[in-house]
Design goal:
The structure holds two protein chains of two kinds.
Chain A: H1 4-10, E1 37-43, H2 47-50, H3 54-65, E2 69-75, H4 79-88, E3 106-110, H5 117-126, H6 133-136, E4 144-148, E5 164-166, H7 170-185, H8 192-200, E6 206-207, E7 212-216, E8 222-227, E9 236-237, E10 263-266, E11 268-269, H9 279-283, E12 288-289, H10 292-306, E13 310-314, H11 324-335, E14 341-343, H12 351-360, E15 368-373, H13 377-382, H14 389-401, E16 406-413, H15 420-441, E17 446-453, H16 470-483, E18 489-493, H17 496-506, H18 512-522, H19 535-544, H20 549-553, E19 568-569, H21 574-585, H22 602-605
Parallel strand pairs in A: 1-2, 1-3, 3-4, 4-5, 9-19, 10-13, 13-14, 15-16, 16-17, 17-18
Antiparallel strand pairs in A: 5-6, 7-8, 11-12
Helix pairs in contact in A: 3-7, 5-18, 7-8, 12-14, 14-15, 15-16, 18-19
Chain B: E1 7-15, H1 24-37, E2 54-56, E3 65-75, H2 81-91, E4 96-104, H3 111-114, E5 115-124, H4 130-142, E6 147-152, E7 155-160, E8 165-174, E9 177-187, E10 190-191, H5 194-200, E11 207-219, E12 222-225
Parallel strand pairs in B: 3-11
Antiparallel strand pairs in B: 1-3, 1-4, 2-3, 5-9, 5-11, 6-7, 8-9, 9-10, 11-12
Chain lengths: ~625, ~230
């Protein structure tokens, strides 16, 4: 255990020391000696980011409910703290017991963003563990390192460092793994790990990368990824929970302000829209709505347990939850007096959403955010983002009429088939919104425009596509900038140096393990933070490991190519993805799952009776 | 518009070592949530962004514990002081305790404006004799002025520490550490910092813990302790 007087020698000099002390409301401290499994849930970014992650909060709750399991938390120390810890010889420790991570049985990383990968290595190193799973496998008392989360839909770049990955929804499979682990450890021989991993590999949703071999073609592309023998499944299907389990209502309430400093209740999992660029929309299928009574009960309980003054109704597209209006009305009625703020992330671009926003808005009308994603009608058809310019005009008018003074719009650059006309159409749309704002609200009205470069993601219809050429992106950014010179328009971009790394890591294969290791050795940390990110370290790491980032990021792949993630099965059929890609090129849209089934494969994969699983059929209130 | 009827309570509380790295702003939010969990109807200001009517006597520096910190809350619903204390007790994060709760006159001056001084105790692990410690304290007290330089947010501020030190004494020993106590000015004209006094005494780097033991309020023109000893 790290003693408090040792922490007292370093914490006064680091920024935000409250990140490292724990003791928050609702943290669970369990008796270390009375459990059979001790799990450190780790997030490879700072406390404020990690504490905003709902997935880890769910696992923390589920694991700590088990009488013989304990779960604690650990986050990436900011560079000043890392330096202080290394100087003092302090290992990375968990917030609850202040015990070193090396004392735990499992270290479970939540992998949500590729630019956190260098932090994963840094945390393992700070914990004093060998970075490579192959070095840990012969050490019976070294913790198992487990990965889960969005990035594990292409886990290959991280396979060197992880003993196993959990693919998909973790609520059930985590407990199955826990039971298997406890059995395997009890009275087991020194070499329990290989046996355990072999058995774990047969659990649905568990991927043990050391039991798979990758083979490559002379041109560097993948030839095959296959199991070492027939006792290991050739492909790994993600786990889903058929019915959403009750949401956690006793989450840890941080002292220091988290990025999402509010209570969260998940109202729906999955999204029915079928936007072709959207990773989440493809991998989190099928759509499952949580019954409204359960949401209301969870909010009641959550508020009693946390004292939060704001709750967020979490989903990929809040206004698509079929009972959203009655839900929001019920919440406003119930909690209006107590000044509860309600936030709805990801609102659809329509006047219905403005009405919803109006219902929940209790204080100053600061800003509304919408994501048309593309400027022209044609390009929106390509990406299957089914909104029209008229929708946006009506939305802006409704927002202004209700008193909003700022509208933020999200767009992407570098979408497939995009031409300069499509880019200039963004400027046109923004100008339209701006003039509506000027007319209705006068000079105080502002439009925020956020333009991110599109990264084609695995398991989406655009997975075969290259990242757009950096020069072309720069030229299009410049064109947009000169078309939008206006004081009431604030334009922001994504950094191209971040984009190529994100593209290379998210679409890479196992050979990238060496590159990630090299980059970390060269000093890469917190690559997701603009002030910490040093792209030249990654350039050097690619160079020294003999790999070309462009091979992964900006190469058109063919349908026949074995993609590095082809053994990971999301339930969505690859033929459906290809079909959607072809429809995109022809500018054909596909219906929302709620309107018609495109037979993506999910329904038959899990023999679902109702898919999407919705509370109210459309047409009803 | 009807005038809102409010009830005002003074909460005296401690902030222990577990929470000493939690900043004042974070503590304010923690109290807000504690009061909500305790189902206490905290009054809010009117207007576009209503904020809860809570007033802390004085922000505690990060790294310093507090034995009797003070907070006034304005409530929309009446409650007995003991009931409020009991509810807070079950809802306060570990490391915070309620020392006392009392209803006070709504018309009393706002709490931070009443604070005039604060007393601190510091544990100093110095390998030196008590005579030496005493003579350092004496030297500081006889000094006419103590020019100090503070650096904060890249700004340099020169000031005189001496007039801010009202009392300074050796309060005893705790284990192998000396306990140095002090009363420092804490009002609109100047606030003494205990770490500054300790480093002026030459104890920088040997300080093991600092606790604010009490706040002195101006009541009827006389400075009174926040909590009688």
């Amino acid at each position: 255990m790290i003693a408090n007087d040792v922490l007292d020698t370093i914490l006064p000099a680091v920024s935000k020391p409250g990140r490292y002390t724990g003791r928050e409301w609702n943290q669970r401290i369990k008796d270390w000696s009375k459990v059979a499994l001790r799990v450190a849930l780790a997030y490879p970014d700072v406390y404020e980011v990690g504490m905003s992650n709902l997935g880890l909060a769910i696992l923390y709750d589920i694991l700590n409910r088990e009488p013989d399991v304990l779960a604690e938390r650990a986050y990436a120390p900011w560079p000043d703290m890392e330096q202080a810890m290394r100087q003092a010889g302090l290992p990375l420790f968990a917030l609850e017991s202040h015990r070193p991570l090396a004392d735990f049985d499992w270290i479970g990383f939540s992998l949500q963003y590729e630019l956190n990968y260098s932090n994963v290595l840094n945390m393992l190193d700070l914990a004093g563990l060998p970075l490579l799973a192959s070095e840990r496998i012969a050490q019976p008392s070294t913790p198992l390192v487990i990965g889960g989360g969005t990035c594990t839909y292409n886990p290959e770049p991280l396979t060197d460092f992880f003993d196993l990955f959990v693919i998909g929804e973790g609520e059930q499979v985590t407990l199955e793994l826990a039971r298997l682990y406890v059995q395997s450890r009890s009275g087991a021989a020194a070499a329990w790990k290989p046996n355990f991993l072999r058995q774990a590999a047969t659990i649905e949703g568990v991927y043990v990368p050391s039991l798979y071999v990758a083979e490559y073609n002379p041109d560097g592309s993948m030839a095959a990824i296959r199991p070492v023998d027939c006792s290991v499944p050739p492909s790994i299907r993600k786990r889903i929970v058929p019915v959403l389990p009750s949401p956690p209502t006793r989450p840890v309430v941080p002292f220091i302000r988290a990025v999402h400093d509010r209570g969260m209740v998940e109202i729906m999992r999955g999204c029915s829209r079928g936007c072709r660029f959207c990773h989440a929309g493809m991998v989190y299928r099928p759509v499952r709505e949580r019954p409204m009574t359960e949401v209301l009960r969870a909010v009641d309980e959550l508020l009693v347990q946390t004292g939060y003054e704001e709750i967020s109704l979490v989903s990929l597209s809040s206004s698509d939850y079929s009972a959203i209006q009655p839900l929001v009305q019920a919440l406003s009625q119930r909690y209006g007096e107590q000044r509860l703020a309600i936030s709805l992330p990801s609102l659809r671009t329509d006047s219905f959403s403005v009405e919803l926003a109006e219902t929940i808005q209790r204080t100053r009308k600061t800003g509304l955010t919408f994501a048309p994603e593309a400027g022209s009608e044609r390009l929106r058809r390509v990406i299957n983002k089914g909104i029209t310019a008229d929708d946006l005009v009506r939305t802006a008018e409704a927002a202004c009429a209700s008193g909003w003074l700022r509208i933020k719009l999200y767009f992407m650059l570098g979408l497939p088939t995009e031409s300069i006309e499509d880019v200039l159409a963004i400027a046109e749309l923004v100008r339209t919104v701006r003039s509506i704002g000027r007319r209705e609200r006068g000079r105080r009205f502002q439009v925020g425009v956020s333009v991110n470069t599109f990264v084609p993601k695995p398991h989406t219809p655009f997975q075969w596509l290259p990242l757009a050429d950096a020069e072309q992106i720069r030229a299009r950014q410049a064109a947009l900038r000169s078309a939008l010179r206006d004081r009431s328009v604030q334009l922001s971009w994504s950094d191209e140096a971040v984009t190529w790394l994100e593209a290379a890591l998210s679409r890479g294969d196992r050979r990238l393990g060496g590159t990630i290791l090299k980059a970390w050795q060269l000093g890469a940390r917190f690559d997701a933070w603009a002030e910490q990110y040093k792209p030249e370290l990654w350039q050097q790491a690619f160079g020294e490991t003999g790999l070309d980032p462009a091979f992964y990021a900006s190469r058109q792949r063919s349908f026949c190519e074995v993609l590095p993630w082809s053994h990971i099965h999301t339930g969505v059929d690859v033929h459906f993805l290809w079909d959607e890609y072809q429809r995109a090129l022809r500018g054909e849209t596909s219906p929302d799952c709620r309107q018609g089934c495109m037979d993506c494969g999910v329904r038959s994969e899990w023999h679902l009776e109702c898919c999407p699983q919705v509370l109210l059929q459309s047409g009803q209130p | 518009m009807l005038t809102q009827v409010l009830w005002r309570f003074r909460i005296v509380f401690s902030k222990g070592a577990e929470l000493k790295y939690i900043s004042h702003l974070d503590l304010v939010r923690a109290w807000q949530r504690t009061l909500r969990r305790a189902d206490v109807a905290l009054a809010h200001s009117q207007g576009f962004s209503p904020h809860p009517k809570m007033f802390f006597a004085s922000a505690l520096p990060v790294g310093v514990t507090g034995r009797s910190e003070m907070l006034d809350v304005l409530l929309e619903r009446s409650i007995q002081a003991y009931e409020l204390a009991a509810r807070l007790k079950t809802q306060l994060p570990c490391g915070m305790r309620v020392v006392s709760v009392a209803e006070i006159a709504l018309a009393a001056p706002v709490l931070p404006a009443q604070v005039v001084a604060a007393e601190y105790e510091a544990e100093v692990a110095a390998a030196t004799s008590s005579e030496d410690v005493q003579s350092r304290l004496d030297q500081l007290l006889v000094a006419v002025c103590l020019p100090r330089r503070l650096q904060r947010d890249g700004k340099i501020r020169d000031y005189d520490l001496r007039p801010l030190v009202q009392r300074l004494w050796l309060a005893g020993r705790r284990g192998d550490a000396y306990v140095i106590a002090m009363r420092l000015q804490a009002d609109a004209h100047g606030t003494g910092r205990p770490d500054e006094v300790l480093s002026a005494l030459g104890f920088a780097g040997q300080v093991r813990a600092i606790e604010r033991t009490r706040l002195l309020l101006l009541t009827n023109g006389v400075a009174a302790p926040s909590h009688p000893r």
